[in-house]
Amino acid sequence: MTAAAQLVATLRAAGVHLEPTASGRVRYSAPRGVLTAEDVEALRRHRAAVLAELYDERGYRTELAGDTLILVHHEHRCPCGRHFKCTAPTCAGRTIPCAVCRIEWGGGE
Ligand SMILES: [Zn+2]
Ligand SMILES: [Zn+2]
According to the model, what pLDDT value does residue 102 have? Predict the structure, then answer.
């Protein structure tokens, strides 16, 4: 288990709720008095690794570039021939229409 996974597991066991935000931060909420200053400091120190852990749980693939975490894109090929990239974990391998076709196909998901 990595230090970050350990930290996440320990905090969760204590009742802390951790969530990745779109802006690349870790949002946490905890019952009053549960999170210590050291915990907050540890979260800050391992921010990228903790984020990677939380994204991983949700099925996203991530990559560390220095200490910046980036979401790994996968590529889709629309039947119209356009290629496009996305990061959504649930669609990998599926044929989904590109943005242009989605408009032309008329809202059907
Ligand atoms: Zn996709
Ligand atoms: Zn298309």
Answer: 87
pTM of the model: 0.77
79 alpha carbon to ligand 2 midpoint, in Å? 6
Tell me the ligand closest to 81's alpha carbon: 2
Residue 18 has pLDDT above 70, yes or no: yes
Q: Which residue(s) pair with 30 in the sheet?
A: none
Looking at all shown ligands, the one closest to residue 72's CA atom is 1
Domain that holds residue 12: 3-70
Whether residue 56 is found in the same domain as residue 95: no
CATH number of domain containing 29: 1.10.10
Distance 103 CA to ligand 1 centre (A): 17
Q: Which two tokens stand for residue 58?
A: 């949700």
Cα(88) to ligand 1 centroid in Å equals 5
Which of 51, 70, 69 is CA-nearest to residue 7? 51
